[in-house]
Each structure stands twice: as structure tokens, then as C-alpha cells.
Amino acid sequence: MYFFKSISEDVRSAQLTFTKHTKTRQLVLGALFASTAAVLQSAGGFLPGIGYFISPFATAPILFCSMLSLPLGLMSYLITNLLLLVLQPSELIVFPFTTGLLGLGTGAAFYFFKKRISIIGSGAILLTLGIVSLLYGFKFPVLGPGVSGTFSILMTGGVFLFSFIYNWIWVDIGLIFYKRLKLFFTKQ
């Protein structure tokens, strides 16, 4: 069955190969991922309109980096937050709780889980927690001004359903690009 298929064997072999690289090469790659994520996330502020369609792609660099190395993914996530503090401080509230958290959580799920449903579900739970904490904890209208700031089970269920489908798409996109770019990441 599609959701219960083990998908992380290719990722695990590439992780083992990636850890054999020098620390300098790993850090440079992490910095490149972090800067790419910061530029993509800040596109919404620099290019109003079209930039809001570009900024969700900030998940990809953090996801790929976390798939290769969890400590390096966490470092890239933190560096991206620091870069956003300088480049576009208005995006600093959105990235740590949505796109960045999704990339980091889904990349970490490749370490801990083997089945597709577990990887998708863990990323969806983290994204739901991030959106719900922005909506109800910080009262930040991440879903727009039409969404109420009071807690609703129906809204939380809708956010989880959206998060599950959204993360499913990201897992499949990540695997497709990862298989194509695997030679670049694991090249000696």
C-alpha cells in the first residue's frame, strides 16, 4: 500500500555517505541551504504578490538539509531565522512556526520513521501545532483576517487536514528531487 511503503532506505544510505564528508563541506552546504531558505521566505516582503507564491518554497532547503543531517538541518533552521531577522523581520514570526518547522520536522521524521504515513503524519502534526500556536497563542492571523482568534475544534481539524495534504506533497516532492540530486549530495 502507498502510505505504508518504506521510503527512507535511500535517504539512510545518503546520510551515511554524507557524514563521511569534511565538516567544512557540511557547514558550507548548510549555510547555502540557510541562505536560500531566507531569500525564498523573504520573497513575500520584497516582491508583493508573486513573492507570496515563492515563499512556501523556503521549506525545501530546510527539508533537504534535515534529510541529509539532522544537526545540520537544525543549524540551517536557526541560521535562517537569524538571516530573516536582518533581511525581513516581518517574516520572522511566520517562518519558525510554519515553513521552517515543516521542513525541519519532516526532515527529522526521515531519521526516526520508515513508513510514509509516519513521516507525513509527524510533519503534519508539527505544522498544525505551529499554525495553531500562531492563531490562538500569539493571535497572529496567519490564515488571514477572516479566521477567528478563538479556539475551534473544527478549525483545528481543518488545519490538520490541510497540513497532512500539504506535507504529503512536500514529502513526495522532496523524495523526487532527492533522488535526482542524490549524486550531488553524496559525491565524494
UniProtKB/TrEMBL annotation:
Keywords recorded for this protein, A-Z: Membrane, Transmembrane, Transmembrane helix
Membrane-spanning parts: 27-50, 62-87, 93-112, 119-138, 150-178
Name by which UniProt lists this protein: Uncharacterized protein
Species the sequence originates in: Bacillus salipaludis
